[in-house]
Amino acid sequence: MNPLRQRIVLLGPPASGKGTQADRLSSTFGIPHVSTGALLRTECARGTLLGREADAWTCKGLLVPDELAVRIVAAWMKENGPRFLFDGFPRTVTQAEHLDKALRDLEAPLDLVILLELPDEEIRRRILERISCLACGATFSASLHGHAAGDPCPRCGAALVRRNDDTAEAIEERLRVYRESTLPVVGYYQKTAPSIFHRIDAGEGSDAIFAKLSELLEDNKDEG
Ligand SMILES: [Zn+2]
């Protein structure tokens, strides 16, 4: 399928399922799913200069600075062109401003900004019962999928674990970071690009959310 919208920013709190949705959209519509986390891991694995710089931050458990995140994304766009589904980027207003500028230079403005919304209570509940596969990155809900820590991952067979940053304190910290840095990004897009800004309730089932997202990607109502 060849959607009209191919420069998309997906925003949402932790556990809103945006990574999963981005993966599905990416394989359905053939738009590269770009998460800054994955880009960082690639740069680190390749041992590039950018990667080593980023590693200095991530191994301390810190988010990379805006300027470095922007450089990593710019390097990716230079190699792959301006077609993307960004997940976890831009994380701050500064990053959003830099992205706008980079896209203006390419004469390729954003097509869609989508916010997946989820109440704090639901975020806490989802994270606390989440178990993950560190080998392939899959995550499962203990109550929904019936897996427990120690079980083999249904995708790759490695042992599932409860991530040690999925504690109540760590969750509050992630929620605080989300409110302080990402919510202003939401405000930024509401103000600068209201016609392409959309909200979706992430409390619905994964298939219902995917259907709504697909509709937004395919929608050509307002293109002359
Ligand atoms: Zn796995």
Task: Provide an overview of this structure.
The protein is α/β, with parallel strands linked by helices and 224 residues long. The chain has a domain at 7-118 and 182-218: Rossmann fold, CATH 3.40.50.300. It has nine helices and eight strands. The chain has helices at residues 18-29, 36-46, 49-58, 66-80, 93-105, 120-128, 142-145, 168-192, 206-218; strands at 7-11, 33-35, 84-87, 112-117, 130-133, 139-141, 160-161, 197-201. The strands form two sheets. Strands 2-3-1-4-8 form a five-stranded parallel sheet, with helices on both faces. It has a three-stranded antiparallel sheet with strand order 6-5-7. It is globular. The model has no long low-confidence stretch (mean pLDDT 88). The structure holds zinc ion. Residues 133, 135-136, 138, 153, 155-156, 158 line the site of zinc ion. Zinc ion is lined by residues 133, 135-136, 138, 153, 155-156, 158.
Layout: helices, strands, pairs:
Layout: E1 7-11, H1 18-29, E2 33-35, H2 36-46, H3 49-58, H4 66-80, E3 84-87, H5 93-105, E4 112-117, H6 120-128, E5 130-133, E6 139-141, H7 142-145, E7 160-161, H8 168-192, E8 197-201, H9 206-218
Parallel strand pairs: 1-3, 1-4, 2-3, 4-8
Antiparallel strand pairs: 5-6, 5-7
Helix pairs in contact: 2-3, 2-4, 4-5, 6-8
The structure holds zinc ion (ZN).
Zinc ion (ZN) binds at residues 133, 135-136, 138, 153, 155-156, 158.
